[in-house]
Amino acid sequence: xxxxxxxxxxxxxxxxxxxxxxxxxxxxxxxxxxxxxxxxxxxxxxxxxxxxxxxxxxxxxxxxxxxxxxxxxxxxxxxxxxxxxxxxxxxxxxxxxxxxxxxxxxxxxxxxxxxxxxxxxxxxxxxxxxxxxxxxxxxxxxxxxxxxxxxxxxxxxxxxxxxxxxxxxxxxxxxxxxxxxxxxxxxxxxxxxxxxxxxxxxxxxxxxxxxxxxxxxxxxxxxxxxxxxxxxxxxxxxxxxxxxxxxxxxxxxxxxxxxxxxxxxxxxxxxxxxxxxxxxxxxxxxxxxxxxxxxxxxxxxxxxxxxxxxxxxxxxxxxxxxxxxxxxxxxxxxxxxxxxxxxxxxxxxxxxxxxxxxxxxxxxxxxxxxxxxxxxxxxxxxxxxxxxxxxxxxxxxxxxxxxxxxxxxxxxxxxxxxxxxxxxxxxxxxxxxxxxxxxxxxxxxxxxxxxxxxxxxxxxxxxxxxxxxxxxxxxxxxxxxxxxxxxxxxxxxxxxxxxxxxxxxxxxxxxxxxxxxxxxxxxxxxxxxxxxxxxxxxxxxxxxxxxxxxxxxxxxxxxxxxxxxxxxxxxxxxxxxxxxxxxxxxxxxxxxxxxxxxxxxxxxxxxxxxxxxxxxxxxxxxxxxxxxxxxxxxxxxxxxxxxxxxxxxxx
Length: 651
Ligand code: ATP
Ligand code: MG
Known about the structure:
Blueprint: H1 11-16, H2 21-33, H3 35-42, E1 56-59, E2 66-69, E3 74-75, H4 77-81, H5 86-89, E4 93-98, E5 105-109, H6 110-126, E6 134-138, H7 143-155, E7 158-161, H8 168-177, E8 182-186, E9 189-191, E10 194-196, H9 198-211, E11 218-222, E12 236-238, H10 239-242, E13 255-256, E14 260-265, E15 275-279, H11 281-294, E16 302-305, H12 312-324, E17 328-332, H13 343-351, E18 355-358, H14 360-368, H15 372-375, E19 384-387, H16 394-404, E20 411-413, E21 448-451, E22 457-458, E23 462-468, E24 478-479, H17 483-490, E25 498-506, E26 512-517, E27 522-524, E28 527-529, H18 531-539, E29 544-554, E30 558-567, H19 575-588, E31 597-600, H20 614-621, H21 638-645
Parallel strand pairs: 4-17, 6-7, 6-8, 7-14, 8-11, 11-12, 16-17, 16-18, 18-19, 19-20, 30-31
Antiparallel strand pairs: 1-2, 3-13, 4-5, 9-10, 14-15, 15-24, 21-22, 21-23, 23-25, 25-26, 27-28, 29-30
Bound molecules: adenosine-5'-triphosphate and magnesium ion (MG).
């Protein structure tokens, strides 16, 4: 990957974008040399009720980890997302909703958003929800999910959105963990033509949670499909009935900058999900500024992030960031391959989408289905493409750039985490040249660094563990109810720094390449390499659509390389092909990376956000699957049985 391709910023982009290279350098330097000055000014993009006098008050000291931004200011997040836009853009569309069926859509203006959010806020208040209470939102991708989040923000309740694809047990754990007593759900969800029994799941979850001592006072149910559901007298409420009983206006609660805005459980790729807690002021400033500059959002643009609101990407870049900026944000209920593999691009054409943000898992799946599904659509409205969630293999990056964007749209590969609140490492489209597979450079105020296993800072072109040296406003403040877990998880490994858990390489241009989680780094005969590197080589083979690589104990090499490979539609899984793939990786990277074992896998175990769960693949590769750990966040548990059955390393 040393001979990385570079896609330079085009002159048109340098011209049209808010930030060009000179401006990036100037603003970046100021942001790290004078964080108080820089963020004090940038925070003016948000409306404050009472202005702050203090900007940054943060400590990464292991014995006293504490993160506060704008701490004496007050504000309300829903006012920033709605009310302040009413003067000039009440009739502008705030949310375009595209339903699971292509015939189903809705346009919600800022004026309507205000009314719906206020009514829902009043319903919650009428049923006893107060500032600081935890409200669980378990919803499909319908506008009411966004109303629910903003309604919580309006009255100062802390929302905990649980992805609608999670099981009753996962929901129960999350209700219990934050002791939430108010749940908002819908009768059923619909994705890809299939119904998901959200209300029935909620009933099961509450039953389980209450056995463990939790207590849920009310369940508010939005009617989505009209499917038959049981309503429990005295507890369950219909949304459509309740909103008629309350006023259309709800005065916002004055919140401290450091009052919690939400709790969100991480996707659980590495273990038990953590209740990541974000607060109000810094989070709003950070999501707003990153949404504007990373996506180069200009007034009137149609912006679409395909994430689910159940993930942090949905929080920061479907709801809070875009709405704080008065944007038109598209919310999609469905899946990329329903009714056909052209759906994403048809939606882009239908609504004139200018900015499109998705995940490598979707890009690889669509790439595997062939170009025709893309090329038969117009996509002429598209101007910018984005990626988030996993390292994007250069092969997939190039496909996205060439086939989807027709070499016209820059691709921003955005690295960040639930914990970081917003994007930390990314190209800015008018400023920073893109390299397929690299997230490139830090955003304003972000100081990434690479350390070795002993915590020594490494200089120049190097490889190691990715840490961040100092705080930025969007950073999580604690693990809900467990500050010690927060400190131990992020600040104990390399004392004085925030440890991301990810490995990375920094090249001679100072660009960052995320190589995957550090637990996934391979050590083969003393050579360290990221699993992402071997995976990218495999995916670059024309017959391979997806690959996951893990290490397993090897007598001679210490660690052997075990590859799970999903083939392109129609390709035959033969021993010949295994040989071919082995030789391919040898020639792409070198003999040291030669796969020891290859298993053809029709499907890979993924989290419900579409990330490959290497933790489980490692267990199977080690021929030790007696204890696969927490599998509650797995999307399709059956995939695991197939992998176990066809495992290649049998004791
Ligand atoms: P858990 O923390 O529960 O194991 P998770 O880390 O998958 O789950 P998220 O916060 O959703 O939960 O994901 C953040 C991680 O995703 C990052 O730490 C990184 O490993 C990966 N990631 C996100 N974006 C990128 C990107 N652009 N390039 C490479 N990796 C990325
Ligand atoms: Mg993580």
